[in-house]
Amino acid sequence: MKYSAAILALMAEAVLAAPQATSGATASSSTSTATNTTAMASSYAGASTSDVYPPSGTVANGTLFPSESVVGFPGPTQTGVEPAAAQTAPLYPYNTGAAKSFPLVAAQPHGSNSTSNIDITKYWGNLSPWYSVNSSDYGLPNASPLIPKGCSVEQVHLLYRHGARYPTSGAAPATFASKIVNATKGTGFNVSGDLAFLANWEYKLGAELLTPFGRAQNFLLGVEYRQLYGELLNNFTAQKAIPVFRTESQDRMVKTAENFAAGFFGVPEYLQEVNIEILVEATGVNNSGAPYEVCNNSNIASRGSIGSTAATKFATNAFNSTISRLNSMVSGNLTLTPTDAIAMLQLCSYETDALGYSAFCGLFTAEDFANYEYYYDISFYYNNGPGSPVSAAQGKGYLQEFVARFTQSYPNASSALNETFDNSSTYFPLNQSFYADATHEVVVLDTLTAFNLTALFNGPALSTSNRNSSNNTFVASKIVPFATHFTAQVLECPARNVSKQIRFIVNDAVVPVSSSHPGCPVDPDGLCPFNTMVSVLQQRIAQIDFNYDCFANYTATAGVNYNGRAPH
Ligand SMILES: *[C@@H]1O[C@H](CO)[C@@H](O)[C@H](O)[C@H]1NC(C)=O
Ligand SMILES: *[C@@H]1O[C@H](CO)[C@@H](O)[C@H](O)[C@H]1NC(C)=O
Ligand SMILES: *[C@@H]1O[C@H](CO)[C@@H](O)[C@H](O)[C@H]1NC(C)=O
Ligand SMILES: *[C@@H]1O[C@H](CO)[C@@H](O)[C@H](O)[C@H]1NC(C)=O
Ligand SMILES: *[C@@H]1O[C@H](CO)[C@@H](O)[C@H](O)[C@H]1NC(C)=O
Ligand SMILES: *[C@@H]1O[C@H](CO)[C@@H](O)[C@H](O)[C@H]1NC(C)=O
Ligand SMILES: *[C@@H]1O[C@H](CO)[C@@H](O)[C@H](O)[C@H]1NC(C)=O
Ligand SMILES: *[C@@H]1O[C@H](CO)[C@@H](O)[C@H](O)[C@H]1NC(C)=O
Ligand SMILES: *[C@@H]1O[C@H](CO)[C@@H](O)[C@H](O)[C@H]1NC(C)=O
Ligand SMILES: *[C@@H]1O[C@H](CO)[C@@H](O)[C@H](O)[C@H]1NC(C)=O
Ligand SMILES: *[C@@H]1O[C@H](CO)[C@@H](O)[C@H](O)[C@H]1NC(C)=O
Ligand SMILES: *[C@@H]1O[C@H](CO)[C@@H](O)[C@H](O)[C@H]1NC(C)=O
């Protein structure tokens, strides 16, 4: 290791200055501890650094270290009943503590005092760890994800996102690091005060892969779903079959499905108790989990990525006072810009999610974090929500696949779904009591838009210029965080005139459908008669013109609610 005594002293100081990990309420303010020492940037500031594990050529040796089944002597192995907490528990296990979750720690915002207790991790858009959302946010104050009285759960369909990952390749944080590297090549690059840590900061993040915390999120989601719905496995036992869980071929997507399965079935049982189907994610290949690979307009600035442009524009005015404060702590050839403010906020999120803590977080105020969240709200609403002209088309693949599973009939090829797999009882079984598909957050949001779950976006189209004048229920960190999950519960409710019912749940919030799905009654539990819902969704499938939205020549603008469909 190349740490000098001076750096070790600085690191020790940073540890002392770091907020207490155990109690958000006692976290110390980040302002009072900043020193006025000016540090000359070291020659390696901003450099990328990485480690590689395992060493090449190494492999576990199953002969020297045989598995449990070979060693034998397992002791008694009597199983208990499958858990069914969704049905049997009086209380639902909400994830309402700090979103940061064990084992991450996060600072209080800059300028906060000893009495403030702000969970900054709930302001990170798609980089937030998931947390329970309250049904009252969307208009069902008394709904719970527990199975309503008088009903029993017959079938569950789950669509979930990978847990925390490194930045995608070429994202803003790595560009920021190279800007620091460039600054070290000029003369007199010094940093002071809250920014002093940058003098010895290195870029330690990889790209694309799940982080250890990300793995834990997917594992725990598997544990949670086994606990809530394990009894549905008895249906597989009766059929003498094991389930197919699907994912995409990217490394993090494969590991996501494996960690979920490991949590759901146990290690190493998951290796034998589920078939994990890996669908190729690559340009030009049909895959409902990666529709942007075959939807050309999704990658065109004036169509599929109007949200990114609008969010960048919003950021040019949102962080001015913080940028001036930070620039006053820098000398030499470096001037921080709004782009750098976003990059440093993202470094706060990514370093926390990957390394457990980030010195960048304490640079920003509570107001900055609110604007950072709104930056993501704009980006996602207009890239993958109702403000996008391609989102419904991209979500149509999963919409068709859900309806196919609801109706036991294979879907037709009018979207990004892969007909080769979806015509096969091996690769697209239609008789499962429990389905679990892993995907990306953009696709989860595309899917919610395709389902026309407009309660999630209630209100006028998001303002692209002013957070305070916006009046929409949409908040990105509630809908597209790491490990976000969309659940459909199919229920039997014998006491109702129509016994077969369905409802939709996003991160524990039950979504009302009575205003968006004609024929679904106002219902405090968000229920809709199954056949009514299926026929509304079939109409929605017919309405979404994949070919036009993904390939036609049109221009879209941020500021409009398109219901996810291209303007004609
Ligand atoms: C740190 O430096 C700033 C700017 O030079 C100054 O306003 C402030 O009073 C200093 N703080 C301390 C604790 O010396
Ligand atoms: C495992 O170890 C045994 C005994 O040392 C050796 O014969 C075998 O080649 C090893 N297998 C692997 C996969 O390394
Ligand atoms: C501390 O911050 C909170 C908001 O986070 C504010 O309401 C309160 O007035 C502040 N207290 C002091 C003493 O500044
Ligand atoms: C959801 O919000 C309602 C109304 O504000 C409140 O009564 C309820 O306790 C909240 N539920 C949870 C799980 O936090
Ligand atoms: C760093 O400097 C190189 C060479 O001048 C330049 O090509 C590159 O764009 C700079 N990077 C950043 C992030 O400014
Ligand atoms: C300052 O940085 C910019 C961008 O990296 C570079 O093009 C320029 O040559 C640098 N100027 C000095 C004086 O080092
Ligand atoms: C369906 O998926 C397979 C394997 O991933 C791929 O080879 C094939 O091209 C896909 N079909 C279409 C129409 O893209
Ligand atoms: C914020 O800074 C930008 C330059 O980055 C400037 O164009 C804009 O006018 C400033 N906005 C406000 C509200 O001061
Ligand atoms: C298993 O679940 C499916 C889907 O709910 C249902 O159609 C089927 O009847 C169930 N089979 C058994 C044996 O319970
Ligand atoms: C927000 O919406 C509510 C209800 O639709 C309306 O009463 C209120 O005036 C709106 N506020 C703003 C700032 O648009
Ligand atoms: C979608 O929901 C909106 C209400 O937000 C409704 O006006 C529209 O008819 C719905 N579309 C379909 C196809 O159900
Ligand atoms: C798309 O439409 C615009 C405006 O009508 C036109 O200028 C442009 O050439 C068209 N592009 C293509 C590829 O047809």
From TrEMBL:
Coiled coil keyword on record:
no
Q: Which GO terms describe its molecular function?
A: acid phosphatase activity; inositol hexakisphosphate 3-phosphatase activity
Entry-linked CDD domains: HP_HAP_like (cd07061)
- Database matches in InterPro entries: Acid_Pase_AS, His_Pase_clade-2, His_PPase_superfam
Q: Which residues form the signal peptide?
A: 1-17
Q: EC number(s) on record?
A: 3.1.3.8
Keywords in alphabetical order: Hydrolase, Signal
One Pfam short name: His_Phos_2
Name the Gene3D superfamilies on file: Phosphoglycerate mutase-like
Q: Does the keyword Cell inner membrane apply?
A: no
Instruction: Give the family, as the similarity comment puts it.
Output: Belongs to the histidine acid phosphatase family.
Q: Can you name this protein?
A: 3-phytase
Q: Which organism is it from?
A: Exophiala viscosa
